[in-house]
Amino acid sequence: MSDNNVRYTVAGLLEVTATEQSNLAIPTWLAEALLVGQYWNQSGLLEQLQQQVRVSRGRMGQYEVCDFVLLLLAYAVSGVETLKLFFEQLESVKPVLMSVWKRAKCPVAATLSRFLADVDESAVEQLRSIFEMDFLVHPIEMKPAMGLSGRTGARWVVFDVDGTVKATRHRALVNAATHPQVKRRSENACAPGYGGRKRGDYVRTRSTVACAHNHEWLCTFAAPGNGTPKPDLARACGLVQRYLQTQGLTIEQGIVRLDGLYGSASYVSPLQQAKIAYAIRCRDYHLLTDPIVVEALKQPPHATITYPDSPHPRELFDLPCLDSTRRGYHEPMRLVIVRMERFDKRKRAVGKCNGKYIHELFLTSLPVEQFTATDVLNLYCGRGGFEQTLSEEDKEQDGDRWCSWQAQGQSFWQILNQWVWNWRIRAGVVQSPQLCGRQTEWPSALPEMTEEVATPQPEASQPASVPQPSKLPAPRYGAMTVSEGWAKSRHKYAGKDCVFSQLRHPILTELRQVILTQLRQV
After folding, report:
1. Rounded distance, CA 106 to CA 99, Å?
2. How many CB atoms sit inside 10 A of residue 389's CB?
3. I need a surface site. Which of 26, 130, 268, 359 has the fewest CB within 10 A?
4. For residues 394 and 400, is the Cβ–Cβ distance under 8 A?
């Protein structure tokens, strides 16, 4: 590129000549990317990557798997929205970034795209094994102050399992014999499924597992469409067990918190077999027809709670042992029922409407002496913290941004992206060891657990109440005013667009007075 010479005179005496040259700026994320690369080199992760992860390609070329992994790690650190913008920022520092692993050349965007398209399931599992080994060998230490304390002082650790959805929109294509066959890039990575609040034609679901006390990711599983939640949950249970053993805790001290997607017998049974405590919103509303449940709903509630954002009280019923093995559950479970009066007729997204009540069901295996019915409900409502973690991930790293339109290639990138998240948390703990992870504190242990049980009071006969006239002052209304011009913005007429004329006919005048009188009384 030719240089442009610019000449100008200063104070009419001194002539200055300047040359315009393009000088690309150094990206702000380069320093952190170099630290990540150095950590992989010194911790042995780079050596394990080179020995274990294999990607079969028809044309190997001059690049290895580690070259593309280094680029994806830098892309995760950068937080740039697209790969196109990332490679534009990378242009000035390619040799510097690749030198951290002593690599000579840097792949271009097209080469990275072809590599991710060739990634198969075995390569994803090999990378996932390295990811799991790293956070099990170097976990964030669960200090005694971290965790959740029950009513009797027992220590628990809470894990959240949930899925996130990435939706894609399809542009209209002509499907006719005169045109080529319709082929979309997203067909391999996405499939029809439930999009939730996200609008799109095809979706991709990613199941994530996180520790609620330090925001550390344990694993991620993704698949086109609605994903594979049942096998993902079974693998997550095994990973939670190994994580607890690494922290020196027992399996019985773990609590898995799940939403309504997992609230049926086919999902609860694997948790019961794994001997892991759980708190799940149940969608098996056929349990309401069980004779034991029907009889329990006729009794006084165990507790009544009212939230600040809702004036409607909620009644809690606690069934410590409900045997529903005939419905597919592996063992008896504890059922907490939340009942609330139905105050409108709109359709409910959550809960079962039965008569004048709305019922919500929660399944758990937590002992009654440790957690009351109110504690179980509050523990489940604490899932909002996990939703906040997913929101923070979207803002900082956006693990669902597209890197590849091939399912395994996208999973390969998302595993590396979650590793960067964990590395940042560990770096923060090392830098500020005095800061502790989040801790859910409960009230002190109760001397008696019967305080929550409501005792029915005998109803005394009272005379029929006579309705008293209201003592509230009668509302007063001012004079009628002409509406402003805001209605015109909605393509309607405003008050100034109407002309009021004096009604001359006696009947019309009387009618006008009646209308004004009724308007004042409204």
Report:
1. 10
2. 20
3. 26
4. yes
DSSP 27: P
In contact, 130 and 65? CB cutoff 8 Å: no
Residues in the chain: 522
Q: Strands of 365-449 (E only): list them.
A: 439-440
Closest among 376, 403, 387, 397 to 208, alpha carbons compared: 387
**Exposed, middle or buried by CB within 10 Å (0-12, 13-18, 19+), for 109?**
middle
Question: Which helix (H) or strand (E) is 20 found in, with range?
Answer: strand 14-20
Tens of pLDDT, residue by residue over 256-265, are 999 988 999 9
Residues 21-45 have pLDDT tens digits of: 777 788 999 999 999 999 999 999 9
For residue 464, name the pLDDT band (cuts at 50, 70, 90): very low
Cα-based distances in Å from 106 to 32, 239, 441: 18, 35, 50
pLDDT digits (tens, 9 = 90+) for 104-159: 999 999 999 999 999 999 999 999 999 999 988 888 888 877 888 888 888 899 99
d(CA 91, CA 36): 19
Tokens of 431: 């830098």
257, 208 Cβ separation under 8 angstroms = no
* Nearest partner of 125 among 224, 240, 221, judged by Cα: 221
Buried b (16+ CB within 10 A) or exposed e, 391-402: eebeeebebbbb
Q: What is the pTM of this model?
A: 0.78
